[in-house]
Amino acid sequence: MNYRTLTGTLLVLCVSLVAAGQPQSGITGEIVDSEGAAIANARVLVHWDPAGSTVGLSDNIGIQHDVIVTTHSNGRYLAEVPAGFYDVFVSAMAFTPTAAKVRVKKDRITYNSTLRPDPLVSRELAH
Q1: Which of these, 1, 2, 21, 69, is most buried using a 10 Å CB contact count?
Q2: pLDDT tens sequence across 64-81
Q3: Which CATH number characterizes residue 52's domain?
Q4: Of 29, 35, 23, 36, nearest in space to 90 by CA
Q5: Over the stretch 54-113, which tens digit does the pLDDT of each residue have?
C-alpha cells in the first residue's frame, strides 16, 4: 500500500469516527389527543421543502425522500433528518390530521402536535 492510499484511508476513518460521535439533527416530539393522552402508532411524515435553497440559504441541506415514523406507546417519535426546512404531517385513525412547517438547524428540534377527533368519524359513531 502506498503512502497516498494509506493517508486517504486514515483520513476517511477519522472523519467517520468524528461524524459517528456527533449528535444527529432531527425532529422529536410527542403526539397527544385533545385531552392530553398519548397517541400510539400515529404517523409522522417529514417532507423536505427545497424552497429555502432557492433563496440562498446554505443550511437547507434536506433529503430527497420523505421520512415516515410512527409514535411509540408514549406518543413520542424521532425523525432523524439533516438541517433544512420541512413540512411535518401528523395523522392517526379517527383524528383530523395536522401539518406544520419546521426548520431544523444543527441539533434536534421539538415539534409536538395535538390531534382532534375527526368530526366525520364522530358523526358516524353516533349513529
Answers
A1: 69
A2: 899 999 999 999 999 999
A3: 2.60.40.1120
A4: 29
A5: 666 667 778 889 999 999 999 999 999 998 899 999 999 999 999 999 999 888 999 999
Query: Is 19 a member of any domain?
Result: no
By C-alpha distance, which of 115, 91, 103 is closest to 27?
103
| Structure-block grid coordinates of residue 40 | 400510539
The C-alpha atoms of residue 85 and residue 59 are separated, in whole angstroms, by 9
What is residue 38's DSSP assignment?
B
Position 18 in a domain? no
pTM of the model: 0.74
Establish if 56 belongs to a structural domain: yes
In this prediction, residue 55 carries a pLDDT of 62
